Amino acid sequence: MPFRLLRMGLSRSAEEPRFLPQTPPLRPTYDVVIIGGGGHGLACAYYLAQRHGIRNIAVLEADYIGGGNTGRNTAIVRSNYLTPEGVRFYEASRRLYRDLSAELDINLFYSERGHYTLAHNDNDLHTMRWRAEVNRHCGVDSEVVDRASVAQAVPELDLDCGGDAPVLGALYHPPGAIVRHDAVAWGYARAASQLGVEIHQKTRVQGLQTEGQRVTGITTDRGSIRCGAVVSAVAGQTPQITQHLGLYPPIQIHPLQACVTEPVKPFLDTIIVSASLHVYMSQSSRGELVLGGAVDPQVLHCNRASYEFLTGLADHVVDLLPMAGRLRIMRHWAGKSDLTPDFAPIMGKTPVKNFYLDAGWGTWGFKATPIAGATLADCVATDQTPELIRPFRMERFSNQQLLGEKGAASVGH
Question: Residue 298: what are its φ and ψ, rounded to 5°?
Answer without folding.
Answer: -85, 150
